[in-house]
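Project standup — Tuesday

K.O.: blocked on the structure for the chain from last sprint. Re-posting the sequence here as requested.
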Amino acid sequence: MRKLYLSLILCGVCLVIGQGSLAAAPAADGAGSPAAAGKATAQPEPDVREVQRLADQGDATAQFKLGVMYAKAHGVLRDERKAVEWYQKAADQGYANAQRALGFMYENGRGVAKDDRKAVEWWQKAADQGDAMAQFSLGLMYAKGRGVPKDKRKAVELYQKAADQGDAIAQHSMGVAYATGVGVAKDDRKAVEWYQKAADQGDEDAQNDLGAAYSTGSGVAKDDRKAVEWWQKAADQGHADAQNNLGAAYATGSGVPKDDRKAAEWYRKAADQGDEDAKTALDALKNQNGTVPAPRNPGP
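H.V.: unblocked you, prediction finished:
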């Protein structure tokens, strides 16, 4: 089962300054959406002087862009203190993206002294404007009691706000909450509903958990074939738990024909990522067969 996010994960923004637009992509500058992780593409070199000119005139969007440029070294040398300075200017004007970014910087101690209370303060401002990532991040702080008193119910309320806007990680977190009964009454069917929403967006953790739900019949009719289908989707994204689950499916013939070679292949993938259950399973296959089945050659 998926391990609930207990550390804050925020993503960045790739800038297309020449076109005056922002596109989500991963980075450690505190802006953007986690759903974009892993999808960065090469971007044109930004026109630093034009952005600087607009920022100096008080344009909040330009101030935020300039902050991102310093955080990501786009056209300028990386300088996280300057990034914070420009985020602050935009945030003070009520710019939600900058408020979210400031929260990230304070939570992680990037360009400023680490301060969970200030992180919460800025995420609250962005969340009040409907920023889904800030809502989810604020929810995590309530879940952990960082910068605010621990409040699982409040955490789920904030996850819900982000999830209702289509944030896949928040949707998966809602599934985990309903599956475990943390912050909300336990409800396996609702857990599956939220897993499905996130899985359909490609969230690998949700895909793995949805597979587990089908495997055990928790909140949905037991269906080993569907379990394998969802584990396959997550495993293909490199999800170690799903790779181990696929190995077990092939080893036992659950939802797929029994195949020790394929079992060994998937166990190896998971074991290579440090999955202890997969390592144990590989040893068991070796003891059973005298050797671990070799992977099949893919052929020409």
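K.O.: great, moving the ticket to review. Residues 1-28, 33-44, 294-300 have pLDDT under 50 and may be disordered. The longest helix spans residues 276-289.
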